[in-house]
Model the fold of this input.
Amino acid sequence: MFPLESLVDVALLIALVLAVAPWFGAYLGRVYLNRPAFGDSLLTPIESWIYRLLGTSPRETMRFKEYAFALLLTSGVLFVWMYLILTLQAGLPGNVLGIPNMSWDLAYHTTASFLTNTNFQHYNPQASMSLWGSLLSLQVAMFLSAGCGLAVVAAFIRGFTRKDGTLGNFYVDLVRTMTRVLLPLALLASVLLVLLGLPQTLAVYVTAHTLGGGTQTLYLGPVASWQAIDLLGTNGGGWYAANAAMPYANPSAASNLLETGLMLLIPLSTPFAFAEIVRRPGEGLPFVGTILIVLVVGIGLFLFFQAGPNPSLLGLHGLAQNSLGYPTFGTESRWSFSESSAFQVVSIYTNTGANNLAIGSLNPLAQGVLLFGMFTQSTPGGVGTGFGMLLVFAVIAVFVGGLMVGRTPEYLGKKVGKEQMRWSAGLLLLHPALVLVPLAIAILGGFVVFGGGIASHAYLFTSVLYELTSESANNGSSLGSFADNTLFFNLVGGTVMLIGRFYPMIGMLAIGSIFAEQEVLPPGPGTLRTRSATFTIYLTLLLVIISALLFLPVLALGPFAQLGF
Done:
């Protein structure tokens, strides 16, 4: 029988994050409204100096094109910086292990991956990245990519409160995100992780003497600070190849729960920040409700399917068994089944992509549950952009609801017209296009080689589908069952990640700018009440149905086909 008592600590963790989220969300709202907030006396002079260095000021506000240009310019400079370090790291200081330069195509994929908050790794971190190469390029990108996501969603939300067409100042938003959100939280999380046993050192490795008289090289590094921003910023790229399944990165049940909470904190707080910015208390609750419904159902389905028999393992002998007597493989044994499963589902649904178990060994239906979390991109999705996509779904829901009752659709006093819907529809269709078109090219072009029977074909199809979905959703996890460090998958994957990140961000800014040019209308008799349980259910059903319709056929060819459906 499934041990339900092991779910208690997972439930308590989610409840604790939800208890903190309204307070932290209100704090985020004050940060992006430039209101007085904790730490002003220390941080305001530092921020003012940075603004002078950048040649900007909080009094300068940007329209859509200016904000988008600043975003792309910052990202472009970071792209060049990272690419140069990765392709020149062999000759740079701090390369104690003599790690060679990355090939140009792998460097392109890696740069695109960390720039886009994806952190998809086609390489072994210990063997392919030097210490200072990681810290000066990849870790910088982990902060800035998360910061850009939060800045963009803040600008998007401001569109509902303004009527002059402006969205704020990108550089100010990014600086305040760094100084008041990501850096303080990452510092606090790093200290907590060190206390829980994660190493934090600039020593690359130590040599241990084993009981048998031999020696073993143990790879170290600033693991605690890396894990902190890795999970807090929903990045997901591990310091180790085994990611969060490596004991040095996740040594105990306590660290596993803390790391799960770090992934949830900002995504669950952003709806409350939304309510703070638009000055409508309670307006974020329907989004929290939708997120919790999809996330909790996802965890429940994952546990149900993973606790059952896995058809690919039934014929194998000598494997460990789960609580129901079925063989299992690739799951973590240092903490409970529920804790491990909750970490993995939260990681995928927040588009973090960190792993504490082998996704390729999961029950095919459990893999399907993870895929669905990446299909939605918004329950809760990655830092900033996840809520931005959920807000796009809400705009579509309001538009469809208005048409059904014969009223002019409006949301928060702003009319929803064809321009907003054109951008919204484009954002919804982009994700399946970025997944399905490269998937067809990879298979029909012979870039993956199929062998064996139908189940083997379905498994490989699922692996390629999962990889491209993960890259398009800026997730970064992988089934790891085929060689993807090739010219084709490096170039295609890098391009998919760049388009899948920046087109939606530009689309969110465009939608926000259209709203920002409108006057706020008073609510009328036909105004759809969005602060209600009815709207929560409506938004949830719309999101689930649209996501299922867009991707159900490929699920039938992949995970379902592995079961003989």
